[in-house]
Description:
5-stranded antiparallel beta sheet; binds iron/sulfur cluster; about 30% helix; 4-stranded antiparallel beta sheet
Amino acid sequence: MHALPEFTLRRPTTAAEAAALLDSEPKARLVAGGTDLLPNLRRGLEHPAMLIDLSGLRDFAAVTAGADGGLTLGAGLTLSALADDPAIAARLPALADAARAAAGPGHRSAATLGGNLCQDTRCVFYNQSEWWRAANSYCLKRGGTTCHVAPQGERCHAAFSGDLAPVLLVVGAQVELQSARATRWLPLAQLYRDDGAAHLTLAPGELLIRVRIPAPARGLVCGYRKARVREAMDFPLAAVAVALVLQQGRIVTLNIALSGTNAHPLLLAGTQALAGEAIDANLLARVAKLVQQQVSPMRSTVTPSNYRRQVASALTQRLLRELGGG
Ligand SMILES: Cc1cc2nc3c(=O)[nH]c(=O)nc-3n(C[C@H](O)[C@H](O)[C@H](O)COP(=O)(O)OP(=O)(O)OC[C@H]3O[C@@H](n4cnc5c(N)ncnc54)[C@H](O)[C@@H]3O)c2cc1C
Ligand code: SF4
């Protein structure tokens, strides 16, 4: 780790002011809790001319419980506040579980919801010091021409490893983005693309200001499970969220999302076709096959790719069986 590089620090008090600053300085970076960005700066991965500190924004950490059963969460909500909030615990406890599973207690007291959703992708060839990366001629994600994980390919496979996105994806959350010119709502799934070097679809000058979680469907149950190398504090080697509605033992809706396995949080395709089925061994085998086909863990972490694939599939089966009451 190096000392932080020189930069100008600005502390806006409104989201509009933050968006205007971002618009005025293309080389500016947003910083919320700093638990993802600051280690990256200290590794020399980025050299922003300006940091825009979001921690002083008014009403940026509000939790609003709607009369319809939905929730709106400010992007500045810390993971520890999110884990302890009574409205979240009552309406979407799986999100509180996911927040509690992220990083360590010190990180969670500073880390934010917005920073968690917008965190950088990770790779053993990228989260390294400048001299280490230079000795390896850098890589496609920053400064080089080859991906060391897939040298024949032309894209980066660094893994998205955030804990909150899977739960928010399975319940159909939307995010509100603000720029100097406009605000817009976007389904969370559309915030991401399958490219580890540019995994966010945020337009230049946009910041994420709110997350809206719709009222749950009648009978919806939702859970989150994470596997990691160090239980006390670690990114997921694979993690899964499941949202399920059953009626008389048959699936009405089933959504599954995974983290740690792809360059973006993966909302599993093909689960709609399982409506009407019971959660039995045959169904669990079909779900396992969907997971195995769609996850693409690469050699971007210290855990072997095929192991992560197997863990993703086993975690999904276990969680689905538990939620289904089996
Ligand atoms: C040792 C360690 C362990 C960790 N373990 C985990 C883990 O288990 N699970 C996990 O999910 N994460 C983990 N993290 C990563 C990080 O702590 C979390 O992702 C955290 O939630 C990031 O939030 P932050 O507010 O600190 O983000 P920051 O570091 O402030 O920002 C992260 C990125 O998001 C951008 N950003 C921040 N806020 C916004 C916004 N409102 N709109 C647009 N862009 C924004 C920043 O520009 C930056 O690019 C770990 C980090 C460390 C150092
Ligand atoms: S997956 Fe390839 S391009 Fe991406 S960070 Fe790793 S080595 Fe670099």
